[in-house]
Amino acid sequence: MSKYAIVCTSINIESFPFTGTGTVNGVEFESATIMYGGRPIWKVKEHGMLPAPTEMSQFTRGERSAIAAWMKKVEQNPSLVDQNSQMASAMGLAPKRTTTQPSPQVNQMKSEIEELKALVAALLGNQVQSNEEEDSDEDSEE
User: Could you give the CA distance from residue 73 to residue 92 in angstroms, rounded to a whole number?
Assistant: First the structure.
């Protein structure tokens, strides 16, 4: 459970950038999404900047992170609008963080790496074997 009481009072996810408003521990905030890594992520908007530099923010880094996480949950489940993040989490209404499955490209790269490792091991095995044969040839000449 978050140590911050966050309430999203409104959210608009119909067009990009998504926007929302709310309160964290009674202090109002405005947030919106930016694209990062090919997907939208939530940021706190302050002083007309998205995101505002940490030094200029009235919120701590922890509060900003918690706001972003709660807005993502509300984005996925709009029935959480006007719900306190602490109460919703405690009652099991808020979804848990999910881990993303690796993309097919990542899985393909992993299999290619395994094939390369096997190839290198085979080549090194042959090299070790060749070196041993050379050593034995030198021993027999003496």
Answer: 12
Question: CA angle, corner 72, sides to 103 and 93, nearest 5?
Answer: 110
Residue 84 lies in a domain: yes
pLDDT, tens digit, for every residue of 54-76? 899 999 999 999 999 999 988 98
The pLDDT tens digits for 46-55 are: 998 888 888 9
Residue 33: exposed, middle, or buried by beta-carbon count in 10 A (0-12, 13-18, 19+)? buried
Q: Of 138, 9, 139, which Cα lies nearest the Cα of 71?
A: 9
Buried b (16+ CB within 10 A) or exposed e, 34-67: eeeeeebebbbbbeeebbbeeeebebeeebbebb
In a shared domain, residues 10 and 78: yes
- 120 and 60 in a single domain? The answer is no
- Does 139 reside within a domain? yes
CB 83 within 8 A of CB 91: no
- If asked whether residues 14 and 70 sit together in one domain, one would say yes
